[in-house]
Design a protein that fits this description.
It is a single chain. The chain is α/β, with parallel strands linked by helices and 239 residues long. It has a single domain, classed as Rossmann fold (3-Layer(aba) Sandwich). It contains six helices and seven strands. The longest helix is centred in the middle third of the chain and has 29 residues. It is globular, with a radius of gyration of 17 Å. It starts with 6 loop residues before the first strand and ends in a 7-residue tail after the last strand. The relative contact order is 0.14. The structure holds NADP nicotinamide-adenine-dinucleotide phosphate (NAP). NADP nicotinamide-adenine-dinucleotide phosphate (NAP) binds next to α1 and α4. The site of NADP nicotinamide-adenine-dinucleotide phosphate has 28 residues, from α1 and α4.
């Protein structure tokens, strides 16, 4: 088992990429901190993982836009498991619209969840990782945190922010044993797309299964290397 006794903290664990990654990590023996706002989804996931793999999970219902709640969730995780080896920042929201149709509330929500949420979780978890002198943070800016498209103004603003934040954190921790990986996925078929009005071909997207396999690859990168960045696109979308 590739992640035996590793502790993985996952924001956005209730659905989509975070949920599928939790399952993949559990299969490899990880202990999990499951965080998102919808408690019943986390409880159901924790139950399923216990039945399948005997997984030790801590359920932390929490809004990633609330710094105090995120700090408390990290403290609970450390009180329970004594360490955090990997942070997967998978909480996120998307509104893909022309800038004239994007509301102020939608823009603010993307900055709050996608950028400030990643800052809060990364800040509080890396404080612990710095003491441990080891750890890995995996962030998901997606391809729209590296290249823009029509209707991506607000979302790309939040996700380019994640890319910039992560690259700067890499420098902060350059010699301290804490590593960062940026995953730039193209479209992944998850509930993320359920409320997006833009026309997309979900059947051509990356499956959530393949996304989780790539995240496992990042999570199990050899100690002597760092996987700084990975770009994965559906075959029809080569850059
Ligand atoms: N799907 C794609 O095509 C794609 C591609 C590249 C990158 N990404 C990025 O990958 C990440 C995961 O996306 P996904 O497709 O898995 O999305 P998803 O299926 O919509 O799941 C998003 C998760 O984030 C949680 N979340 C949302 N707002 C939150 C908040 N304020 N506090 C805590 N948790 C919150 C949701 O739970 P609650 O609502 O219950 O809180 C849910 O568990 C996102 O950052 C997304 O931007 C997605």
């Amino acid at each position: 088992m590739k992640l035996q006794d590793k502790v993985v903290f996952i924001t956005g664990a209730g659905r989509g990429i975070g949920r599928e990654s939790a399952k993949r990590f559990a299969k490899e023996g990880a202990k999990l901190v499951l965080m998102s706002r919808t408690k019943h989804q986390l409880d159901e996931l924790a139950r399923e993982l216990f039945e399948l793999y005997d997984t030790d999970s801590l359920v932390e219902p929490c809004d990633v836009t609330n710094a105090a709640q995120v700090k408390a969730a990290v403290e609970n995780a450390l009180a329970t498991f004594a360490k955090i080896d990997i942070l997967l920042n998978a909480a996120g929201v998307g509104h893909l619209k022309p800038v004239t149709e994007l509301s102020v509330e939608e823009f603010d929500q993307m900055i709050d969840v996608n950028l400030k949420g990643v800052f809060y979780a990364s800040k509080f978890v890396t404080e612990a990782m710095a003491k441990q002198k080891s750890g890995l943070v995996i962030n998901l800016p997606g391809i729209l945190g590296k290249a823009v498209m029509r209707m991506s103004s607000g979302y790309s603003a939040s996700k380019y922010g994640v890319t910039g934040l992560t690259r700067a954190m890499m420098q902060d921790f350059a010699r301290d044993g804490v590593k960062f990986t940026l995953l730039h996925f193209g479209g992944v078929d998850t509930p993320f797309w359920d409320n997006i009005t833009m026309k997309v071909q979900r059947e051509k997207m990356i499956s959530v299964h393949h996304a989780a396999e790539m995240i496992l690859l990042a999570a199990t990168q050899p100690a002597q290397f760092v996987l700084n960045e990975l770009v994965l696109q559906p075959e029809s979308h080569q850059l």
